[in-house]
Design a protein that fits this description.
This protein is mainly alpha-helical and 173 residues long. Helix content is 72%, strand content 0%. It has seven helices and no strands. Helix 5 packs parallel to helix 7.
Amino acid sequence: MDFNKNYFEIFDLPVDYAVDMKLLDDRFLDLQKQVHPDRFAAGTDHEKRLAMQWATLVNTANETLRASLPRAIYLLGLRGVELETNPTLSPAFLMDQIDLREQLESIEEGEGNFEELDSFRRKMQQGINEVQAEFKEALDEDTDKAERLVYQLQFLSKLMIAANRLEEKLLDY
């Protein structure tokens, strides 16, 4: 196996934001069988170490390609784009994020209305879907725009995670 392959090459998939998850699952299982450290338990220390490194790489590649945000960040990385820790974002976008955060806090501080929370989560998912579609289009045409969209996706994803945690809290999980 070649450690110089990118995550898409490891699974013999096209380098694209849209990933065939069934194909990824099948190839992941096949690779796991090939490189699982238990297969090399009787091998040399070098073989055991390589098997562990490959298994780790295959697992990391799978986790990255399976989730839309890490996949988007990885694709930008393949194009030489390093995301900033504190990016400069438009004031309008930041104001929208503050408003959304306040909406979520209002739901939490209120009666814990599940209908409001469900509505909020649908709104977040719709926003995520729209940004993902824009990202897919921008990726090959406008890397700067694709980068800005990833920052937006990060914000929306964090809000969705917070909404999911609020649901768990309201349900006493």
